[in-house]
Amino acid sequence: MNIILLGAPGAGKGTIAQKMSAALKWPHISTGDILRQHLREGSELGQMAKKYMDAGQLVPDEVIIALMEDRLAKSDCDAGFILDGFPRTIAQAEALDNLLKKLEKRLDKVVSLNVPLDIIVDRMSGRISCKSCGAVYHTRNMPSLKEGICDRCGGELITRIDDQPETVKKRYQVYEEQTAPLIEYYRAKKKMIEIDGRSGGAEEVYEKVKRSIR
Ligand code: AP5
After folding, report:
1. Distance (Å, whole) CA 156 – CA 129
2. What is the pTM (predicted TM-score) of this model?
3. What's the pLDDT tens digit per position in 43-60?
4. Which member of 75, 110, 169, 199 has the greatest number of CB atoms within 10 A?
């Protein structure tokens, strides 16, 4: 299956995608993780993206679309994929439609995780992520087994620069203005599933998502 996970920053897209990918063996494709990898490597793309990411703004559409053209053409996407953080604008969604047509693939479902701002700010204030593999934890809700160390790869756990409360609010505003219109876009295409991602912990939200895509 080819799936998009939509949702505001901190709604739990990465957490759910991680669980889904481990269980179903479809690649978890996160544009945020790909950009952070470029940042760590100091590539030209990473340096260009940094100023947008640190300010809580979106990286220009043409850059992201070119990245995804390369990524979705890889053979590990043949049996299915989970998109996390893409598309984020109507222009990106239209580019994805064209790209899937070219690759003779189709989009099966779009799952939107609905979580209000107060819960998002709380989740982001405790989020820690692995510097090496991008795995996501929470100091209170979902701690790693060994403090500061990633369970998956042994990498160092860090707080993202864009998780400062003021930047989180900016990212939420950008989501409302530029990404939330995608809910209507995919509703019109009859692909949209909306999930209440507020409570119950990540495991319960994951179970709801799994049931909804069956
Ligand atoms: P990106 O990395 O994609 O950030 P985001 O979409 O803002 O989403 P997050 O990764 O912050 O949150 P999430 O929904 O994955 O939540 P998580 O699972 O971590 O993008 C970063 C930046 O890159 C953007 O601002 C932009 O600049 C750029 N960018 C990326 N894609 C782009 C694109 N397509 N176009 C243009 N620019 C782009 O969960 C959050 C915390 O909550 C964690 O600590 C987790 O443990 C905890 N948690 C999760 N679920 C639950 C639960 N049910 N109960 C309790 N705690 C939970």
Report:
1. 8
2. 0.94
3. 999 999 999 999 999 999
4. 110
